[in-house]
Amino acid sequence: MSQNAIITGANRGIGKSMVSAFAEAGYDIWVCARSASDDFENELEELGNRTGATIVPIYFDLAKEDEIKDGVKKIFSEKRNIDVLINNAGVSYQGLMMTTPVSKMREVFEVNVFSQITLMQLISRKMIKQKGGCIINMCSVGGINTTPGSFAYSTSKNIYIYIYICKTVALELSKYNIRVNGIAPGLVDTDMGQLYADNVDIQRVFAERNIVRLCKPEEIAHAALYLASKEADYITGQVLTIDGGWSV
């Protein structure tokens, strides 16, 4: 019997690579995005035909709790187990602390933190009933080593917040055979990663790395695939950093 995964932010970047990796590994997937497009749905249909995976698009805005709940109801209506939840979606905002409106901070935190908590609350109830599951939350090394101009994003992705979330939720859910981990990517070759790279001295960033290149989104996807697998059954409450290593 195939396993079932939910992946948010699935229409581009890391999320899109995760959908491909999980479909190729035999998972059926609910792919979550904010809005529909013909190109996106055509790509999902082609991937499903190629891999044999059942891929169902679910649309909701992560900044709106009511829409998240409606989306989850659609998933629950299919009466299938949920083996994996990947909270991948995130938003970025460039601006110094002094020029970042508090309203913008709320918007960023709504998507990058609170939507993940909402989804964990809703999906873990289902996982508790089925006595097992795996949750993976995406954070960022931007929450460890930040740069001027990324105040809202880096604060929302603070690694210590995610370590605390992962360890706390992993402890709460461990008795139900539910594992909870995080992934903290470095600079990834995606639209969001390129936007960040355009606003920093990329050579200075590379000078601090042991591996001098951008991370490939499929490298993050395969790390998530490992954390979701039986081979990682003894791993929970951890945040895996994938940043090419720091040379300083």
Describe this structure in words.
With 248 residues, the chain is α/β, with parallel strands linked by helices. Helices cover 46% and strands 15% of the residues. It has a 7-stranded parallel beta sheet, sandwiched between helices. The model has no long low-confidence stretch (mean pLDDT 84).
List the SSEs and their pairings.
Blueprint (H helix, E strand, L loop, with lengths): L3 E5 L4 H12 L3 E6 L4 H14 L3 E5 L5 H12 L7 E4 L14 H29 L2 E6 L12 H6 L2 H15 L4 E8 L5 H7 L4 H6 L9 H12 L10 E4 L6
Parallel strand pairs: 1-2, 1-4, 2-3, 4-5, 5-6, 6-7
Helix pairs in contact: 1-9, 3-4
Keywords:
7-stranded parallel β-sheet, alpha/beta, 9 helices, 248 residues
Number of strands: 7
Describe the sheet with the most strands. 7 strands, parallel
Strand content: 15-25%
* Mean pLDDT level: 84
Strand order of the largest sheet: 3-2-1-4-5-6-7
Q: Helix segment count?
A: 9
C-alpha-based Rg, rounded: 17 Å
Distance between the termini: 47 Å
Helix and strand content put the structural class at alpha/beta
Order of helices and strands: EHEHEHEHEHHEHHHE
* Multimerization status: single chain
Give the low-confidence spans.
Answer: none
Share of residues in helices = 40-55%
Outline type: globular
